Amino acid sequence: MPRKKTITLYTIAEDLGLTIHTVSKALRGLPGMSEATRKTVFDRARELGYRTKEQEAGMSAERIPWANAKPRRFAMLVIGDTNFHRLQLEGVDLRLRELGHSLHPLIVPAAVSEQSEFDELLNANDLAFVDGLFLTAAIPEWMEAALLKLPIPKVLINYPSDLAEVDSVIWDVEYAVHRSVKELYDRGHRRILYVVDIEPLRGFRLRWKAFAAATEMLGLEGLADPGEHVIGFAADRDVWMDHLCGKLSSGQYTAILSVVPGLAEWVYTAARILKLSIPEHFSLVGMENEENRFYPDMSRPILLVREAGERAVELMLRRIANPLLPYEHVRLKGSFYAGNTIRALRA
């Protein structure tokens, strides 16, 4: 017999003070309401454990076990403690709890820098006895390689290395860079300053590769020359800021693309030092993991970090239930928030 739902559309509608028709349209993705209302309905339905027939069919079609599944215990390896990691954790934890499972974060201290120390940490946390392991982005590559050898199911929340045999999911920063360059180009910008280190992480290298490809596609000759940009490591903030201020005061650039979360705030600082304003003197696109509370109207591509965590759970459960399926790499492409930091230039 079909599983009886204790939560109905009427339950959600009554809880939110909406009509059943509005709730139904929201959950089916139909037009006719604000995005805020749609999100409120969707979030409340998730909290109450309600699924539409289409959602249940989608889970079954992807071979993801969800009905009466055995509770499982998963670990998630995290390097550092930033909003970047918090968003990934939130996504994984939310989706696991929805499906009746639990998550145990394993925070790796920054002092762990050798394989022997790392092995001791893994043994102390009984990592071999969990049902699966989630690997967050920004894990050192030597550490990631060691973890991928463990004989347990794994999902990488990052771009995989070329030969990695693992399911993976990532918010698509390459697409975000392409989209950002195109948004600036469409508003008349041809001299775009790229701001961030292009090493040492895989994601940094892919961002620069995407910038070079986007500028070439749009015919912006010379912009793919690293010497034209502020790409050095920002450990010495004074030296880095001097370099940035020198570029901004040169008058060569009409726009800045800051492609790592947090650096856009330093661009604003440099502008204040030079007594320049955004977007009157130059436009700015920042790549933030979420809305910047100091600059909420900053133009930016939407990076689906939390959603990548949720999708990682589905890949994990699919892998456990279907161990012989081919590995998948999923890229989540977000939209673009126009904001108010891009000024259209006259043709």
TrEMBL record:
SUPFAM superfamilies: lambda repressor-like DNA-binding domains (SSF47413), Periplasmic binding protein-like I (SSF53822). InterPro entries: HTH_LacI, LacI/GalR-like_sensor, Lambda_DNA-bd_dom_sf, Peripla_BP_I. Residues 7-61 form the HTH lacI-type domain. CDD domains: HTH_LacI (cd01392). It comes from the Bacteria. Keywords: DNA-binding, Repressor, Transcription, Transcription regulation. This is LacI family transcriptional regulator. It comes from Cohnella lupini.
